[in-house]
Each structure stands twice: as structure tokens, then as C-alpha cells.
Amino acid sequence: MNTFRDLLQEAQDAFERVWFIQAVQDVERTDLTLSLRLYIRADVFVHVFYGQLSNSLYFSLIEHGRRIFGIDREGGEWHLHPYDAPEKHLPFSEGLVQRPPSQFSGIC
Question: What is the DSSP letter of 3?
Fold first, then answer.
């Protein structure tokens, strides 16, 4: 996934295929960044952020305004933020390679 269009399409595909995703919201878009929310409930959603310049990609499961789980790619390295300690950055070598929004929805 290398473009905003790819990420938007993947988010839409996840919405159509993953039964618990209720809505997709395009939160913010600039020339270099994209921020989306995949809503599970009003107070529970997956926040997706893509930064084109750094090629960073973040997926965070948010509940009541706090990250409770996450997977992100920074500097080409994938990290996991586990449920029991979402502030930690643990190596996640397998990453989210194909169809990241759907893969993340299946993991969390």
C-alpha cells in the first residue's frame, strides 16, 4: 500500500467485509497525510494514519479516547502496542503486509 487511494480503498473494503465495522470517516487529509476512523461503536474505533513523507502507517484501537491496542510502522519497522501495555513498542516482525486495514481488524 503506497498511496492515499490504496488506503482509502482498503478501509472501504474492510467496512464492507468486516461485520463489526459500522462506518468509515475521513478525518483529515493533507498533501502528505491521511487520517481515517473505522467505527465499531461511537466510542470505539480504529484510527488509521498514513504519512507519505516518512512512509509511516499507524493503526490504533481507541476506546473512550485512549489507545488500547496498536500496530504501527515507523522507519520501515513494525511495532506492536499490546492490550496489556499499549504504551510499549514491541517488535512486530511480520507487520501488516497485505490489506493492512483488514489485517488489523482481524488481529484486534
Answer: S
SS3 21: coil
DSSP state of 88: -
Question: How many residues are present in the chain?
Answer: 108
| Per-residue pLDDT tens digits of the chain, which is 108 residues long | 457 788 888 888 888 888 888 999 888 989 899 999 999 999 999 999 999 888 889 999 999 999 999 999 888 888 999 999 999 988 887 776 655 665 565 555
What CA–CA distance (Å, rounded) separates 99 from 89? Answer: 22
68 vs 2, 37, 54, 75, 105, CA distance in Å? 26, 15, 24, 23, 14
Q: What's the DSSP call for residue 50?
A: E
The predicted model scores a pTM of 0.82
* CA separation for the pair 22, 104 (Å, rounded): 16
